[in-house]
Amino acid sequence: MKLLLSLLFAGLLAGVSASNVVELTPDNFDSEIGRGKPGLVEFFAPWCGHCKNLAPTYEQLGDAFAHAKGKVVIAKVDADGAGKPLGQKYGVTGYPTLKWFDENGNAEPYEGGRDLDALASFITAKSGVKSNIKPPPPPETLILDVHNFDDIALDETKDVIVTFTAPWCGHCKNLKPIYEQVAIDFKPESNCIVANFDADAQPNKEIAGRYGVSSYPTIKFFPHGGKEVEAYEGPRTEQAFVDFLNERCGTQRAVGGGLNDEAGRIAELDTLAQKFLGAAGDARDYAYKEALTLSESLGEMAKYYIRVMEKVINDQESYIEKESKRLASILSKRTISPAKLDEIKIKANVLSAFVAKKLEEAQEKVESVIGRATAEL
Known about the structure:
It is a single chain. This protein is α/β, with parallel strands linked by helices. It contains 14 helices and ten strands. It has helices at residues 2-17, 29-32, 49-64, 84-89, 116-127, 149-153, 170-185, 205-210, 238-249, 267-277, 281-295, 302-313, 319-333, 338-376; strands spanning 22-24, 39-44, 73-78, 97-101, 107-109, 142-144, 159-165, 192-198, 218-222, 230-231. Strand 9 and strand 10 form a beta hairpin. Helix 10 crosses helix 14 and helix 13 (319-333) packs across helix 14. The radius of gyration is 32 Å and the shape is elongated. Residues 3-16 and 373-377 have low confidence and may be disordered.
């Protein structure tokens, strides 16, 4: 009975610890590599910190191609231990070193990213074998590389913020979801680009060096018009990035998406809106005509101020309150396109210029009543 339990336990333990990454030594290397199927080989050292960081990802890579063991090999070599002769044979001078071997055993260096998606995509491109990884949704952050960096970051018609990152960098991983949300926030802005650049990928290192990138993440802002590149040194929060980009790009985006409360507002017409709502008779008519004349030089957004005034003039004093509630309901549901939501938000913001005056008047009435009551006491 004890023997049976021991065998069962040993079997379970072996199942748990089984790896889909093949361990290569000088004894089995030639029987696994160059025998009609290609493979990726990691040359590592047990004491190497970068190797330790890569290890769980590399195990996941082995699992991702476990279904195709007859077509592609995912392997590793302890190049500071039993596999040292192999490391010397293939010119390994640093750890981890990744090399791709074709079906004939010819080696070439792997110089791409060290995240799971980058590694799996490389193997698929080289071997034609697809991994079993469910592809993530494409990022909203624009991904730059050596081929498109200059065309996008140096486009004089656009403002571009770029994070220079490395796949293994812990701070970069922490920043990624925050930065992705910033990209979502600014997606409607075609001239304010939120981008990322893998500065650790070998083909990209020349560009990283050009901009003095020596640690990760490094964040730089490339302004339109070919102006001097600016280092971003603010907090790495969504709010801080949104505030920074709004100031530099001239946009009015809000944290979480959509426009902020200032979008669409025009200071001169805000003043006239309050003057209009606080007036009556000829004085109100004069404020309306003044706003109408001014709006002709202020563009499309000014027209909504005029429309609101016309609704109020036509005996619809309740229009502002009713319309404000209707627009607030639409904005809370977010069931329409981003462009339409922006349009609704601008209208709501303009209405608030009128509502502010009504709230101010109500506050003044309350204070007046309190003042009279106090005086009578």
